[in-house]
Every structure is written in structure tokens, then in C-alpha cells.
Design the sequence.
């Protein structure tokens, strides 16, 4: 049998990247989440060729202190948690300390970061190797440019879809991040053309209008509900406004976009008999809860989470929607014709 040895760092990071970084949209998600965790007020996402050529995320957040920059690129290195207790009460988007080393191991990553009042610092890594490092002039915040994604992992590179498909994934994740963070001004442009911009004034209804259009936003009503464990708020569409796909529903748990089939069913249940079969409403639901009630550490990309008291939350969501729609008695009840 061959000798058992530890994997070289770059290889270990590439393996981690296999889980966290699936496509350009994953890079966008990880970089924007880092910007959110750094208390940014404004985040600009500039991509070229649907992110296949370049992804740049500029934030005005805390920045990283010069001496800490190389540590940020080590695997499992994070400023966000440092105890098991904190792991079970995560309040930040990140905590696994995997994104930067993962991306830097499968791409060219150039980071310029500045803490207010200090000099800026540049750190440039390609395929896990530092190629450039030193002082750099910039405004407070962090500016990350990722290019040549998967240049050294051909299987991953081949798996990428057309620019149109990859752009679709990026736009989708940027929408969800903007819906989860209405107090942050987020913009997205591709090849210099602006595709999306949120004002960052905290108005969720305006973010919905920026994404789905004013006509859709006008037909969405505010809902709210709370019990001892959960607080639910957001907007759902009137029963007359539906689509044939369920993808216009966004579930946010403490500002984090997640997917949860049970909660999607609860939204539908809230419509009672008001929806036609095969039709789905628009919904954006922000769920606030004690972080101890949710385990985010189930999925490397954190798309799925484990929720305590899921049934209780489902009932609360369905009730909040049902009661709000009951007030709209001018809307015909399509399901009740039989
Ligand atoms: P995680 O987000 O799980 O902590 P990352 O690899 O994404 O791990 O980032 C490592 C560390 O680098 C973070 O914990 C944070 O301290 C720092 N960092 C990364 N991006 C930014 C940013 N845009 N602004 C400020 N600090 C950042
Ligand atoms: Mg992160």
C-alpha cells in the first residue's frame, strides 16, 4: 500500500473549491457575502463575458489589515467565528474560511484592500501561488478581481455552460443577495452594461420593483407574522399574479437566501384555494430567528440549512399569508368555482 501523506495545500484547496465554487455565480456569491460581512454600504459587481472572463467585486467595507491579508488566504482561516459556541450561533454569511483560498487555487485572484486611515495592500494569487504583494493606493474597502476561473482544473472548465446560462445564474444570485440586504446599495454590470441596481435605502418593496418590475411590485402586498420563536415579514403577490414556475419565491433566514421545500409549500398553503393548479405566486419572505435555531453548516455553499421547529414556522407563514389575502375580498377566488 502507498504511504499515507497529507495533501499539498494547493491540492487541498482545489478539492474544497470543488464543493464551494461550482461556477462564476459561486464566486460572485462568496465575494459579495464577504463584502456584506465587512459592513459594506455599497457593493459593485462588475463582470466581463458573464463572469467567464472576469469578476470584480468592489466594496466600501472594513477592509483587511495588511498583516492579516495572507492569513485570509489560508484554509479554515476566518475572522468570523472562533469557538464551537459561535458555530451554533452564526450571524455572518461566512464562517468556514474557505472562499478566498478556494477561489485563489482555481483562478487568478487579485485583492486590494484598505482599512480606513491605513495604507492599502495588494495581494495577487494565481493557482494558489502568490505572484505579487505590496502596498497599493485605494479607497477604504476591498476590491477583488477574479479571472481565468478554472484555468487549471479542465474538468470544471468544460462543465461551464454558455455565457447566457452563466449570466442567468449570476443575475439570480445577485437578486437574492439584494433582496436579503435592502440596506446595501448593490449594482451589477456585464461588459460595462448595467443590469441591476438597488438603492440601499432599506426599502424591500423598491428592491422587488427593481428586480421584477413596477407592475409586479404593485400587485404584491406586505405580510407580517410573529410567534415566540420567529418573525416573518415580506411581500407576496395577490392570487391574480402568478407564474408557472416556483422560482419567484425567495426565502431569507436572517438575511441569508436559502432553499427549503417545506417552507415553499407553506407559502402555497397560505393561498388556500386561491391558486390554480401549477401556478406559483411571487414571494419574498424574511424570517428572523435566534441563530441557535438554524444550522447553517449543512451544505458547503450554505444553500440548504437545518431548521428547528420547521412545522411551527410553516404554520406561521401560511397563517400570515392567509390572513393578509383574506382582506383582499375584491380578488376573485379562482379555485372555488366547483
Ligand atoms: P469566511 O468568509 O468564511 O470567513 P473567506 O475565505 O471568504 O472566509 O474570507 C476569509 C477572511 O478574509 C474573512 O473572515 C474576512 O476576515 C476576510 N475578508 C474576506 N473578504 C473580505 C472583504 N471583502 N472585506 C473585509 N474582509 C474580508
Ligand atoms: Mg467568505
Sequence:
Amino acid at each position: 500500500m502507498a504511504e499515507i501523506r497529507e495533501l499539498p495545500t494547493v491540492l487541498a484547496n482545489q478539492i474544497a473549491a470543488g464543493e464551494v465554487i461550482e461556477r462564476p455565480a459561486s464566486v460572485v456569491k462568496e465575494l459579495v457575502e464577504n463584502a456584506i460581512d465587512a459592513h459594506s454600504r455599497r457593493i459593485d459587481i462588475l463582470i466581463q463575458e458573464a463572469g467567464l472572463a472576469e469578476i470584480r467585486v468592489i466594496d466600501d467595507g472594513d477592509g483587511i489589515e495588511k498583516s492579516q491579508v495572507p492569513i485570509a488566504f489560508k484554509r479554515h482561516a476566518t475572522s468570523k467565528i472562533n469557538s464551537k459556541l459561535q458555530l451554533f450561533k452564526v450571524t455572518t454569511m461566512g464562517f468556514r474560511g474557505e472562499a478566498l483560498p478556494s477561489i485563489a487555487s482555481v483562478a487568478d485572484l487579485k485583492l486590494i484592500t484598505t482599512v480606513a486611515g491605513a495604507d492599502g495592500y495588494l495581494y495577487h494569487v494565481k493557482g494558489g501561488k502568490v505572484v505579487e504583494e505590496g502596498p497599493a493606493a485605494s479607497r477604504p474597502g476591498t476590491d477583488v478581481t477574479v479571472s481565468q476561473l478554472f484555468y487549471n482544473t479542465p474538468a470544471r472548465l468544460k462543465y461551464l455552460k454558455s455565457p447566457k446560462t452563466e449570466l442567468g445564474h449570476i443575475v439570480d444570485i445577485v437578486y437574492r443577495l439584494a433582496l436579503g440586504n435592502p440596506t446595501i446599495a448593490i449594482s451589477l454590470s456585464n461588459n460595462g452594461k448595467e443590469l441591476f441596481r438597488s438603492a440601499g435605502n432599506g426599502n424591500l418593496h423598491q428592491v422587488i420593483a427593481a428586480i421584477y418590475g413596477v407592475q409586479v411590485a404593485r400587485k404584491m402586498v406586505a405580510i407580517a407574522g410573529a410567534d415566540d420563536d420567529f418573525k416573518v415579514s415580506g411581500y407576496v403577490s395577490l392570487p391574480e399574479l402568478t407564474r408557472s414556475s416556483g422560482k419567484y419565491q425567495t426565502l431569507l433566514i436572517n438575511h441569508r437566501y436559502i432553499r427549503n421545500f417545506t417552507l415553499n409549500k407553506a407559502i402555497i398553503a397560505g393561498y388556500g384555494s386561491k391558486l390554480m393548479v401549477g401556478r406559483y405566486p411571487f414571494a419574498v419572505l424574511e424570517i428572523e430567528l435566534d441563530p441557535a435555531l438554524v444550522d447553517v453548516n449543512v451544505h458547503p455553499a450554505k444553500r440548504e440549512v437545518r431548521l428547528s421547529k420547521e412545522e411551527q414556522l410553516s404554520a406561521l407563514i401560511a397563517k400570515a399569508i392567509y390572513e393578509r389575502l383574506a382582506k383582499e375580498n375584491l380578488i376573485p377566488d379562482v379555485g372555488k368555482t366547483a
The chain is about 30% helix and 25% strand. The two ends are 71 Å apart (CA to CA). Residues 213-332 form a domain with the Ribosomal Protein S5; domain 2 fold (CATH 3.30.230.10).
